[in-house]
């Protein structure tokens, strides 16, 4: 069975963006050392246009599928990219869009959990990347097998949580790896304890 990995950036106090989801303040921490790590270890999480600009030709290393909510997908649409991760199978969980702006993007309007379970049951050596946002992550909280949390050295105070709308219930994870960078970013990898 394939893993669903929530690979996400957040503030030290656990927010993935301001109350509207904007996380541009975190971009100030993307320096040469950190960018080299992300491009080497998670090349498929770099949007296709940026991959082309940066000359990233690496094959998909960890994921062959991406799932995101409408808020995350809208960022690509706003940049004129209806297929932001053309190098991956793309799914967008949305009830607001009735027709996909790209033939490469499949919309999921209902039964997101069922669709993700079907994707996890497929045969593949590569996993599924949960790109965001908070509402989708909250809906899929029981399906998350791995967390890769990129903690940026900022405190937001309030904002969009990592898992929006999820009911209180402790869910245990095991720490697998910690990577620190000179810019203060810490990347922690956890596996779901089942």
Commentary on this structure:
The protein has 194 residues and is an alpha/beta fold. It has 5 helices and 10 strands; from the N terminus they run ββααβαββαβαββββ. The protein has an 8-stranded mixed beta sheet. It has a two-stranded antiparallel sheet with strand order 2-8. α3 links the parallel β3 and β4.
Question: Outline of this structure?
Answer:
The protein has helices at 32-41, 48-54, 70-78, 112-121, 134-139, and strands spanning 4-11, 15-17, 63-69, 89-93, 105-108, 127-132, 146-152, 160-161, 173-180, 186-192.
Write the layout of secondary structure elements.
Blueprint: E1 4-11, E2 15-17, H1 32-41, H2 48-54, E3 63-69, H3 70-78, E4 89-93, E5 105-108, H4 112-121, E6 127-132, H5 134-139, E7 146-152, E8 160-161, E9 173-180, E10 186-192
Parallel strand pairs: 1-6, 1-7, 3-4, 3-6, 4-5
Antiparallel strand pairs: 2-8, 7-10, 9-10
Rounded to the nearest angstrom, the radius of gyration is 16 Å
Please provide the count of β strands. Answer: 10
Kindly report the oligomeric state of this protein: single chain
Q: Which strands sit side by side, in order, in the main sheet?
A: 5-4-3-6-1-7-10-9
Roughly how many Å apart are the termini?
Answer: 14 Å
Q: Sketch the topology as an H/E string, one letter per element.
A: EEHHEHEEHEHEEEE
> Could you give a short account of the major beta sheet?
8 strands, mixed
Category by helix and strand content? alpha/beta
- Tell me, rounded to a whole number, the average pLDDT: 95
């Amino acid at each position: 069975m394939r893993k669903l990995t929530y690979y996400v950036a957040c503030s030290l106090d656990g927010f993935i963006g301001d109350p509207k989801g904007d996380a541009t303040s975190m971009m100030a921490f993307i320096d040469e050392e950190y960018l080299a790590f992300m491009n080497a270890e998670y090349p498929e999480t770099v949007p296709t246009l940026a991959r082309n600009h940066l000359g990233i030709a690496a094959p998909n290393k960890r994921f062959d599928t991406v799932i995101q909510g409408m808020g995350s997908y809208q960022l690509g649409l706003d940049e004129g990219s209806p297929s932001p991760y053309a190098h991956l199978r793309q799914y967008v969980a949305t009830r607001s869009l009735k027709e996909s702006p790209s033939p490469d993007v499949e919309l999921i309007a209902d039964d997101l959990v069922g669709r993700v379970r079907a994707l996890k049951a497929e045969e593949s050596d590569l996993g599924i990347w949960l790109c965001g946002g908070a509402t989708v992550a909250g809906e899929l909280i029981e399906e998350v097998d791995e967390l890769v949390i990129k903690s940026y050295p900022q405190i937001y105070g309030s904002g969009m949580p990592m898992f929006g709308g999820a009911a209180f219930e402790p869910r245990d994870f095991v720490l697998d790896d910690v990577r620190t960078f000179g810019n203060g970013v810490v990347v922690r990898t956890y596996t779901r304890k089942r």
